[in-house]
């Protein structure tokens, strides 16, 4: 009788472990999908911000270009056109960010850094672990108790 009961308990425990493993895997997959959706939404917001900024900056650049050109022609001083050089570089950067391939190039560069220069990504004192977090928590709670 005891053997049958222990065999039944073992089977139930194995089923429970399989269920827990499946459940944790499903939860992890959901977390990964959620984090990816959040990342995509943040990137979409960044692109939208760049496009909106480009509209305002393009207007500013157009006004400055007209003003500098008229000033240079009126006063016969071509040096008044010099500010257009850095301003045009900023305009090109924003246009590339908003409608060009800047994000694709940045992604490729990031992948290359991850593949060949991963040592640059290491955190000082390594990855936080339970012990280091608990040590910091204890030190902080001691600090607040003393005050």
From TrEMBL:
Give any Gene Ontology cellular component.
Answer: plasma membrane
Instruction: Tell me the superkingdom of the source.
Output: Eukaryota
Query: A GO BP term, please?
Result: positive regulation of plasminogen activation
PANTHER family to which the protein is assigned, alphabetical: PLASMINOGEN RECEPTOR (KT)
Q: What is this protein called?
A: Plasminogen receptor, C-terminal lysine transmembrane protein
